[in-house]
Design goal:
Strand content: 25-35%
Strand order of the largest sheet: 1-5-4-3-2
Shape: globular
Number of helices: 2
Number of strands: 5
Radius of gyration: 13 Å
Helix content: 25-40%
């Protein structure tokens, strides 16, 4: 499974405090990336670890969100899955607080 970080995601990530950037990097390595790799290997839907609280946003056209900072549950990221030539791609759109829901 390919992973894409949009320019907006990269910009949002740079705006996070350094300690939050580190928390995200750890959550990505320990939880997010392994879930995506397992889904790619088994060709099934992504079984997100419950602690990530992944959910599809209502009326969002397939955009989903998950929690990545477990001490501060208002830290979220948005993403969607798409098919590109038969390959599933995970596109990370935004990262930050619940404020990102205004333009997920």
């Amino acid at each position: 499974m390919d992973i894409v970080f949009t320019p907006r995601f990269q910009k949002d990530l740079k705006r996070l405090p350094r300690d939050h950037q580190g928390v995200f990097a750890k959550a990505f390595t320990e939880y997010i990336q392994p879930a995506l790799q397992a889904a790619a290997q088994t060709a099934t839907r992504v079984d997100w670890p419950p602690k990530l609280r992944a959910e599809q946003l209502v009326s969002s056209g397939g955009i989903c969100a998950l929690t990545w900072h477990f001490a501060r549950t208002d830290e979220r990221l948005t993403f969607y899955l798409e098919l590109d030539g038969g390959e599933v791609v995970c596109v990370f759109r935004r990262i930050g607080t619940h404020d990102i829901y205004h333009a997920p």
